[in-house]
Design goal:
By secondary structure, the protein is an alpha/beta fold. It is built from 8 helices and 9 strands. It is globular and about 40 Å long.
Length: 215
């Protein structure tokens, strides 16, 4: 399995991805120390403005990006975009400059640069910008509502949606299946599986594909 560097390691999916790398060491880059990190993993702690240079120096074979926040957590649309677009792009550019050929990035179901929804538009715009960088292989992960134990304050809307998920999932069929909820551990398993795959091109993975990869 190629050497991987993970950004966004303290979030729901990022933590699950690290836990899935049981026997293979990875480099974790974060703005604060990641608690409980296994001894085989390498940790780099630095402010986000230094991440691009660090990634250049680390020269990972695969960049795994699990960065993501909400407008409520960030405090404004501008602060949200600074993380979900600008910081993701900076990390990707650093990886490309360091010779990284592959990137796996967590996006969102419904991501589209022309969406009328600010969140989905931002996700779509960063997808387009990552394509333009020209990685040999780019995997875009588009999960539905994420289920899993979140640290810190529970988001009210997501909490209510998670409770209702068994009912709403049963109503989503056909092309709407991609909007079903999905466990963060399932997404993490798919990411780890993808990190060991070769090939080229841009690959988009919705819920069904994510579950197939995780099996």
């Amino acid at each position: 399995m190629p050497d991987a560097l993970i950004v966004g390691a303290t979030g729901l999916i990022g933590r699950a991805v690290i836990e899935r790398f049981v026997s293979h060491p990875v480099t974790v880059l974060a703005r604060r120390e990641v608690e409980g990190l296994a001894a085989q993993h390498k940790q780099r702690v630095a402010p986000p403005q230094c991440w691009s240079d660090i990634i250049v120096a680390e020269k990972p074979a695969v960049l795994i990006c699990c960065l993501g926040t909400t407008i409520r957590q960030a405090g404004s649309q501008a602060a949200f975009r600074a993380v979900d677009h600008d910081l993701v792009l900076a990390a990707a550019c650093g990886a490309k400059a360091g010779g990284t050929r592959r990137m796996i990035s967590v996006s969102s179901v419904g991501a589209a640069a022309k969406s009328g929804n600010f969140y989905l538009r931002t996700k779509g715009e960063i997808e387009d910008d990552l394509r333009a960088i020209g990685f040999d292989r780019l995997d875009l992960i588009r999960p539905g509502l994420l289920r899993g134990e979140r640290r810190g304050q529970q988001r009210l809307g997501e909490g209510l949606a998670t409770i209702a998920a068994p009912l709403t999932d049963a109503l989503l069929h056909g092309r709407f299946r991609r909007y079903r909820s999905i466990a963060s551990d399932t997404v993490a398993a798919a990411i780890v599986r993808l990190s060991g795959q070769s090939g080229s091109g841009v690959h988009i993975h919705d819920n069904d594909d994510i579950r197939a990869l995780a099996d």
